[in-house]
Amino acid sequence: MSADDFAVFKQCMIDLDNYRFRESVLSRWLAISIKGNSVSDFLMVNNLNSVIVYGYGVVGKLLVEELANKTGIDIVAIIDKNAGVYDEVIPIISPDDCIPKHDIMLVTFMDTNYAKNLMGERSSNVVGIDELLDGFKIYNH
Question: pLDDT digits over 34-50, tens only?
Fold first, then answer.
């Protein structure tokens, strides 16, 4: 296997892991929703009203849509590496920008530890969407 072939294979494996993560998150989220619960309600019950969404891919856009439609939840910013690409009402900032005050930062991609390390002292409450969904404890694996 050449170096180029290996690089393509490695990228395919990363893409597959990302797909599996999205599928797992979305299926658990749907199961929670079918039972009449929501991420926004969970946040409000736990007094996590000021939210930053980290990652504006498929899961991030769906999360923003749910939270934006809920009175009492304030999405103070979206963090994304492609911050200049999107045209949204909610501020979209780069991971290197100044991080606004918030109660929770929800990471919508697989590597929550990457986000935690990158944020360092700038955010003490960084939680992966998968971890948050695990908090519901109402679905079966």
Answer: 999 999 989 998 899 99
